[in-house]
Amino acid sequence: MEIPADFWLGAATAAYQIEGGAKEGGRGTSIWDVFSHQPGTTDRGDTGDVACDHYHRYESDIALMKDLGLDAYRFSISWPRLFPNGSGRINTDGVDFYRRILEGLQEASIRPVVTLYHWDLPQKLQDNGGWMNRDTAFRFAEYADAVFHRLGESVQLFITLNEPWCSSVLGHVTGEHAPGVQDYSSALAASHHLLLAHGTAVQAFRESGLDNAKIGLTNVLTQVRPASQTADDTSAAVKADVLLNRWFLNPVLRGNYPDLLHQLGIHQVTRQGDTDIISLPIDFLGVNYYHSVFVRNDPDNPLTGFAMFESGDERTDMGWGVDAKGLYEVITRVAADYGPLPIYITENGAAFEDHLNAGVIDDPKRIAYIRSHLAEVLHARADGVDVRGYFVWSLMDNFEWAKGYSKRFGLYYVDYETQERFPKASANWYRDVITTRHLK
Ligand code: IFM
Q1: CB 255, CB 278: distance < 8 Å
Q2: By residue range, what is the domain housing residue 430?
């Protein structure tokens, strides 16, 4: 399968998951610093204090990207590294750190794709209610504006938020992510303020006059299928699709929340004019895809009224089913329902157990996963979906949030004792795909 020359092949990371240097260079504290230091929140008590030490090793990490031949690299900026208190005085050491990364990428001819928010909210803002407080959306716009003005010149794509579904649901319903709140009406408020933050950042971007870059939002999308064709299961699947996908697609791309969100009470936090801001036109949609689910009606589930099951026979180390076809389906569905709209697959990849044997890591399951999913993306493109790039999650093993360092998603294996990086077989395979622009 040939890969078109203008289709970007990249890899992705996020600040808290790789940087470390948590107390260096004037960085402030984020909600993940506080959360991960609370006993019982992460596997083995792991934290991102050191992570992959990318803060000190970014130059050699860019050399790894160059060696892979990446067309583009997606990374996130740590908000508390730029604004230790969330707003107010900007930390110029933080700006300089990201400027050096952007310069390094430019020298390596790798296009920078920058996520503004990948879950590391400054703790000072959390102390005032975090995303549950409407004011946070406007602090985000100030932070975004500072990034556009100080770093925007060499960035190709800006992503406002990564997976607001996770910040809302995992952070405020289940509490398995920072800030660890377990309250469903707080989650509704957080979700709306996150989307408002997205919209105000888009507004700031348009006003910044940057014309070299484009701006969009990244949602994690999960293909949903009914467990049977009964009316109960099909309507449960429609409901699950709203709660997993359309909650964060409709307001941005259609300017209104699905009815179910109104029934749940979203109007209690929305103000007149909000959806106009949230739905300001974006240049592209980022899609993160990992798995799909079957949905069955389940009246015993008091919160949702349905139960979800993984699709496919094979499971990744996260317990997620492998379903490459689901990626084809999800992006063709988004293109049909919300398009025309350029799409980038801003994350896709798999955690599997890796074993380092004399410097060699054989990871055939990861290669098979990436190959099958990338093939479906190219298939969708051939069928007319305007999909323009694919980013493997992740460039290297890193801090997998509540799972700590126990799950490895990387193309590069990280030995956390020595911080040495080793290319897995999947890295060598991906390099070959990029070099030949051919998917075997
Ligand atoms: O590691 C995460 C990433 O931060 C966001 N998307 C999903 C990945 C795997 O869980």
Answers
A1: yes
A2: 8-436
Residue 163 among the catalytic residues: yes
For the CA of 351, the closest atom of ligand 1 is 9
Question: Catalytic: which of 19, 329, 347, 376?
Answer: 347
In a domain, 3, yes or no: no
Read off the tokens for 40. 């019982």
Considering the domain boundaries, does residue 237 fall inside one?
yes
The set of protein residues with a Cβ atom below 6 angstroms from ligand 1 is: 14, 17, 163, 288, 347, 393, 400
Q: Buried b / exposed e across 221-260, counting CB within 10 Å, b at 16+?
A: bbbbbbbeeeebbbebbbbbbbbbbbbbbbbbbeeebbee
What is the C-alpha separation between 44 and 46, in angstroms, rounded? Answer: 5
Distance CA 231, CA 297 (A): 9
- Going by CA atoms, what residue is nearest to atom 9 of ligand 1? 400
- In the chain, the number of structural domains is 1
3-state helix, strand, coil in the chain (%, to 5): 45, 20, 35
In the reported structure, the alpha carbon of residue 220 is separated from the centroid of ligand 1 by a whole-number distance in angstroms of 9
Q: Is residue 194 in some structural domain? A: yes
Establish whether 24 is a catalytic residue: no
Model confidence over 208-264: pLDDT tens digits?
999 999 999 999 999 999 999 999 999 999 999 999 999 999 999 999 999 999 999
pLDDT at 311: 86
Which residue has its alpha carbon closest to ligand 1 atom 1? 400
CATH number at residue 418: 3.20.20.80
Encoded tokens for 193: 């303020």
Give the whole-angstrom CA distance, residue 376 versus residue 397: 24
Write out pLDDT tens, residues 290-335: 999 999 999 999 889 999 999 888 999 999 999 999 999 999 999 9
Domain contains 269: yes
Q: Write down the pTM of the prediction.
A: 0.98
- Distance, CA 388 to ligand 1 centroid (Å)? 21
